[in-house]
Every structure is written in C-alpha cells, then in structure tokens.
Amino acid sequence: MPRGYWMLVLHSHLPFVKHPEYSYFLEEQWFYEAISETYLPILQYMKKMEDEGVHFRFAVSVTPPLAEMMCDPLLMGRYEQHLDKLIELSEKEIHRTKGTCFEHLAHMYKERFEGLRDFYYGWLGRSLINGYKHFLEKGYIDVITCGFTHGFLPLLNNTENAVRAQVELAVRSHAEKFGQPPKGIWLPECAYFEGLDAVLAEYGIRYFFVDTHGVLYAKPRPRFGVYAPVYTENGVAAFGRDYYSSKQVWSSKEGYPGDQYYRDFYRDIGYDLDHDYIKPYISPDGERVFTGLKYHRITGDTDFKEFYQPEIASQKTVDHAKHFVRGREKQAEEIAELIDRKPMIVSPYDAELFGHWWFEGPEFLYNVFKEMDKSEIVKAITPLEYLNEYPTNQVVKVNPSSWGDKGYYDVWLNQGNDWIYRHLHFMSDSMVNLAKYHHNTNDDAVRRCLNQMARELFLAQSSDWAFLITTGTAIEYAVQRTKEHIYNFLRLKEMVENREFDYDFLAAVENKNSIFQSMDFRIYC
C-alpha cells in the first residue's frame, strides 16, 4: 500500500493546420515533427512498458484539432512522405559522416526513424488513435478532451452558447474518435471562470485541471491544498498542479532538460550544413528549417557545442528518473502525515516537451515509471482511479485562473491581440441567430454554408492565435489565420443572407478547413 500517488498529465495539442493548396507548408511541419518526436515515441514506450509488465498510469489529452489531424488522410499521407524523407536523409548522412565522430549518430537516427516507421505501419496500423484507444481500453491511461478548438473559454463567455458549443462538440468529437465520451477535460490554457463547471457537468465531465493558484485561492480555502482534488458546486472535481514536481521537469534552466549532456535542440543540420546539400530536405523556397537530425549536446551557456553522446544521455535519464521518484517519495511521506488520505501529486506538462523540446524526455518518463513501479511509497495513478478511491472531497469555488504568464488572462487579452474578440463575439452572435432562424432548413446550400460558418468560427476561436501574437512567434501566420477565418465566415454569411452561392468558394473552404466532417450548425441553437 503506497503512502501517496503521483499523477502525470500530458497535454497534447496543436492548432488545426491544413493547406491542401500547397504541396509544402511550413506550419504543417509542426504536426509532422510532433508525431516523430513526441507522439510516436511516447506510444512506443507505453507499448514497451506493457510488454515488460511495468505499472504505468497517467492522463493524456488529445485535443480535438490534434485528433482531427491524426485522422486526416491528406495530412497523414504527407506525414508518411515526411518520414520517408527522414530515413533518406539519415542514409545520406551515414555516407557523409563516414569516419567521423558523427557517423554513429547518423546510424542512430536511421535506426530510430526506421523503428518509428515499423511501429507506425505495424502495431498502430497507420493510426495513432489506435494506440491511444488500446491503452485507454486497458485502463492504463485516461484519454481526456479539451475545448473543441482550444478556445480560451473565459473570453468567449459573454456570447450566448459559445462556451457550451466548445464543450459539446469536444465531447462529441472525442466519442467519435475514441469510442467513448470523455470523463475529463483539459481546459484550454487551464483557464477557468466561475460557472464553467455547470457546463462541464451538463456534458458528463467528471474532472478538470487548474494551475496551483486556481485551487489554493479557492473559497473556502482547501484543507489539503493541491494534494487532493476539490469539488465544485456542480460536483465536478478540480485537480491542482503541484508546483515543485512540475518545475523540476519543465524548467530548461533549473530542471532536468537543461543538463549539459542532453541533446541541444537548436543545433540542427538543417542550419549547419551546406545549403545545396541540405536543400531537398528543407523548405522548397530555400528557407532553412529543423530537420530533426542534431549532432550536438547542450554543453553549457556557450555557442560552442560538444558532440552528442547518446549513451551518456540515456544514463542521465535513469539518474534523473531516480532523483525525481525520490523527490515524490519524500513529498508523499511528508504530506501523508498531515492529511486524512493518500496525497496526490499532480504533474501536468505540455506533451511536446517530451521528445520535441527535450529529446530524451520519453525515455525519462519510461525510467520514471520503471523506478516508481519498484517504490513502496508512491505509485502512479489516473484521475479516475483516485476519484474512485476517494469519492468524497471538499466543495469550494475554484478561483478564476490560467497557467499562462501571471496566472490569469493577460497572455490572451492584451493590446497586441485584443482586436480579435470583437470579431469572435460578433461571429458567435450571428451564428446563434442564423442557427435559430434556419433550424429547420431543407436547403442543402444553406445547410453547407452554415456548417462551414460554424467551422470557421471554431477555428477563429483557437487560443493559439492570440498566444502566438503575444509571444512574438509566428505573428504573421497567427494574424493571417485569424483574419482568414473571419473573412470566410463573413463571406459565407453574405451568401446565406442573399441566397447567392459561390459553390467553388464553398467547396474550397470545406476542403481546407475541414475539421469535424459531421459538423451540425444547430449546435448553436
């Protein structure tokens, strides 16, 4: 019987990006990189743990936009071509690096990419969703949903039905992909506002996550802090993040990923090698991009980088995993003396930290679960398992909060991006009015336009665009995407109101912005 529990939560999300009008699009590479560097490696290690009989439990969100992309034939076909090119590049690198200190790394990448290909075409049957469903059905993981397009819910709340539509379609989409409705939700950006729990309860959501202060500043103050869930007035459980275990991993300066022997993210052959040599594997316009083949380690706070030594890095993941588990054991023992139940230590992270940003991250998680499996003090657990063991919890009013900078809503509402919301609110109000007016329409053109208007609205609501504007990364693309969805919505609205249909335009946006094929505009009624 352990003294306490550790709850890993991985938030897997990317905005819906699909550009059939181009054979190559830079932002689509975000998706392909995440598959090869994060999603597939984590699934591989999960299968490895299952085969080895290692006890592992955690919660993972697969957001609706990400799940839609994982099921899109065009995007997955392009990913398969992307993986073939990585294997081709690694083979080319074996010849180029022959006789140098980098040759063994080129071989490592070739074996890695071929292993990903075999796993993807073999055990997964060319479907990442198959992997998540397998471990969900086995009870190893809770697969949870998110807002349908990761909309920042507190800033959509002043428009009728906008929040409810984000939740309802998330639940419907999740059930369609995973064969069962979700029991938990990752609120987009962990953003909570008072009253949101009523909507969650309406759609069968049993739990959600908030940042530390979302629980600590609740009223009345929680007796057990973040080391036990609390219930809202509508009976939905809120789990609060444990700051210490989270920072130990996500901090690149103070956490494990900053170790000098781990692979350096920024030194990539896409930037290092001769342009003519690397040209077939970067952007067709000649712009240099990351290829995923990196030969150097972090080394230190210097431009000079030593070559990467995977054997040493692998041993580091073992050492860091042991250190991490010892820390959780110490926490569990200390807290167990103070509360009337086994404490629960919640460690949520962006999934892309493991593998994409921190190359050795998936192996670290594997070693954490192996080490924790041997522990008699702390064990891994899922949210549903904890709630089943401790169904009675304190009722509080969870504090409005997010996990963004400063802890509230500043990142998504500031002078750089505040222009977005007047359009989102106008579009939502228009959608509600048109949905009610045309509720019983038999006109196929009207129905198609209204369904696509709903898609454009959902895609415009994505919190990613406001976030990218604030952080200064991909500003031009974020602004362009927001304006594109606004324009498409308004043009479709004009077509419905004037009964003048541009079928070529309608077909083009249906093909490009194709999220959730079974969209029904009546969700806004």
Concise account of the structure shown:
The chain is α/β, with parallel strands linked by helices. The chain contains 19 helices and nine strands.
Strand content: 5-15%
Count of beta strands: 9
Which regions are unreliable across 5 or more consecutive residues at pLDDT < 50?
none
Distance between the termini: 51 Å
Radius of gyration: 24 Å
- Portion in helices: 40-55%
Largest sheet: 9 strands, mixed
**Average pLDDT number:** 97
Order of helices and strands: EHEHHHHEHEHEHEEHHHHEHEHHHHHH
Secondary structure category: alpha/beta
Number of helices: 19
Described by its quaternary structure, the protein is: single chain
In one word, what is the shape? globular
Topology diagram in text:
Layout: E1 4-12, H1 28-52, E2 58-62, H2 64-70, H3 73-96, H4 103-121, H5 128-138, E3 141-146, H6 162-178, E4 184-186, H7 196-202, E5 207-210, H8 212-216, E6 230-231, E7 237-240, H9 243-250, H10 269-272, H11 275-278, H12 310-336, E8 344-350, H13 361-374, E9 378-380, H14 383-389, H15 419-437, H16 444-460, H17 463-471, H18 475-498, H19 503-512
Parallel strand pairs: 1-2, 1-8, 1-9, 2-3, 3-4, 4-5, 5-7
Antiparallel strand pairs: 6-7
Helix pairs in contact: 1-3, 1-4, 1-5, 1-13, 3-4, 12-13, 15-16, 15-18, 16-18, 16-19, 17-18
Describe this structure as you would to a colleague.
It is built from 19 helices and nine strands. 46% of the residues are buried. The model has no long low-confidence stretch (mean pLDDT 97). It is α/β, with parallel strands linked by helices. The protein has helices spanning 28-52, 64-70, 73-96, 103-121, 128-138, 162-178, 196-202, 212-216, 243-250, 269-272, 275-278, 310-336, 361-374, 383-389, 419-437, 444-460, 463-471, 475-498, 503-512, and strands at 4-12, 58-62, 141-146, 184-186, 207-210, 230-231, 237-240, 344-350, 378-380.
